[in-house]
Backbone:
């Protein structure tokens, strides 16, 4: 049984395997005269690396189950986040394929080195979400934007995209705030704001006071919606009302 990647790249003929009720062209044949972009090429199994190398060298492919080669005329663009030099040394990526692909190399800096792109990327993702999700009119608040500009994004653009999509899904208000961002982003900023050894003992706040500030701030931001504040803070509504009674708050 061929792998999904193999059948997608090279296609297959009718009857090549169970379920192949009709022939199908692969991406390398479909893109005739154009360009094929292979993302994460470093993840290709070694046996498929050999077949891809043969296709590039011979400018022809053989569909799964086929007996005749098919000529192809395509440009190959490949991307990876792996260190292919190290992968070649370790034997997990073919040296000959590496040199075939490495005709022209373009290094894309990680997102932490081009933070000026973050607002543009956020706008692009929000525009797509707002167009495809009925009723979605989300924007990013200044507090959330500042936090995202300070974050290093180890997962690069994919992590940023996931962050925005998640925030749009969980946020009940049009504006995305810090509380709507994933906890790892909030926690990372907390570590930056208070590095080890840099805390002034006189500035330490009691946990009770921090809790009070968090509760009152949440209610204020949510325009007095106590039930939503309790949900966002992860506490029960009974606990919230008890705390407010202790504070003597008129909110």
Residues:
């Amino acid at each position: 049984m061929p792998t999904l990647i193999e059948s997608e790249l090279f296609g297959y003929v009718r009857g090549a395997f169970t379920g192949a009720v009709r022939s199908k062209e692969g991406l390398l044949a479909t893109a005739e005269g154009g360009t094929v972009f292979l993302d994460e090429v470093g993840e290709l199994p070694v046996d498929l690396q050999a077949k891809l190398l043969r296709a590039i060298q011979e400018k022809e492919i053989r569909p799964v189950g086929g007996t005749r080669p098919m000529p192809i005329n395509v440009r190959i663009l490949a991307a990876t986040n792996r260190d292919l030099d190290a992968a070649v040394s370790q034997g997990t990526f073919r040296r000959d394929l590496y040199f075939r692909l490495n005709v022209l190399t373009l290094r894309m800096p990680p997102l932490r080195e081009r933070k000026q792109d973050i607002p543009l990327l956020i706008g692009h993702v929000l525009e797509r979400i707002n167009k495809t999700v009925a009723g979605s009119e989300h924007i990013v608040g200044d507090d959330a934007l500042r936090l995202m500009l300070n974050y290093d994004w180890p997962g690069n653009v994919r992590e940023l995209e996931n962050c925005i999509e998640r925030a749009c899904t969980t946020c009940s208000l049009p504006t995305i705030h810090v509380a709507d961002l994933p906890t790892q982003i909030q926690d990372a900023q907390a570590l930056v704001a208070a590095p080890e050894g840099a805390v002034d003992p006189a500035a330490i706040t009691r946990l009770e006071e921090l809790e009070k500030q968090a509760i009152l701030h949440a209610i204020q931001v949510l325009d007095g919606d106590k039930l939503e504040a309790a949900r966002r803070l992860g506490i029960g509504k009974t606990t919230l009302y008890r705390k407010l009674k202790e504070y003597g708050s008129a909110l």
Summary: The mean pLDDT is 85. Residues 111-198 form a domain with the Helicase, Ruva Protein; domain 3 fold (CATH 1.10.8.60). The two ends are 65 Å apart (CA to CA).
